[in-house]
């Protein structure tokens, strides 16, 4: 393959690959729904299982992520749930003031 063709192929690859990744990520995130509320109950013995947050029931799956940077996920705490098509992708602890 001529050097000029290899160079052009690499330039195209480096320009368009990041754009395709960003486009895919954007479509993935835009489909997600967000719900925020007070944790009324959560699974005993861990984070996987059934949660009741703000009178809504959510069931986690093995791929669900949990973010506790704003404090531990606990009953009477505030949480944000990100889900798509009924599948919970992430549960995040939030400051209690976000649930008022």
List the topology elements.
Layout lengths: L2 H28 L2 E9 L8 E4 L2 E4 L5 E3 L10 E7 L2 E8 L6
Parallel strand pairs: 4-6
Antiparallel strand pairs: 1-2, 1-5, 2-3, 5-6
Question: Would you kindly provide a written description of the structure presented here, covering whatever features stand out?
Answer:
By secondary structure, this protein is an alpha+beta fold. The chain has 2 domains: 1-30; 33-99, OB fold (Dihydrolipoamide Acetyltransferase, E2P). It has one helix spanning 3-30; strands at 33-41, 50-53, 56-59, 65-67, 78-84, 87-94. Strand 5 (78-84) and strand 6 form a beta hairpin. It is elongated and about 65 Å long.
Briefly note the CATH topology name of the largest domain. Answer: OB fold (Dihydrolipoamide Acetyltransferase, E2P)
Instruction: Estimate what percentage of residues fall within beta strands.
Output: 35-45%
Spans with pLDDT under 50 lasting ≥5 residues? Answer: 10-27
Terminal CA distance: 64 Å
CATH architectural grouping of the largest domain:
Beta Barrel
Main beta sheet, described?
6 strands, mixed
The total of helices stands at: 1
Alpha-carbon Rg, integer: 20 Å
CATH class category of the largest domain: Mainly Beta
Spatial ordering of strands, largest sheet: 3-2-1-5-6-4
Order of helices and strands: HEEEEEE
Quaternary status: single chain
Mean pLDDT: 82
Q: Tell me the helix content.
A: 25-40%
């Amino acid at each position: 393959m001529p050097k000029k063709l290899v160079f052009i192929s690499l330039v195209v690859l480096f320009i368009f690959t990041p754009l395709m990744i960003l486009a895919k990520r954007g479509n993935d995130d835009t489909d997600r729904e967000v719900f925020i509320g007070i944790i009324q109950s959560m699974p005993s013995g861990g984070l996987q299982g059934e949660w009741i947050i703000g009178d809504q029931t959510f069931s986690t799956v093995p791929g669900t992520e949990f973010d506790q940077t704003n404090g531990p996920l606990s009953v009477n705490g505030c949480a944000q749930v990100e889900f798509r098509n009924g599948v919970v992708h992430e549960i995040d602890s939030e400051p209690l003031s976000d649930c008022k």
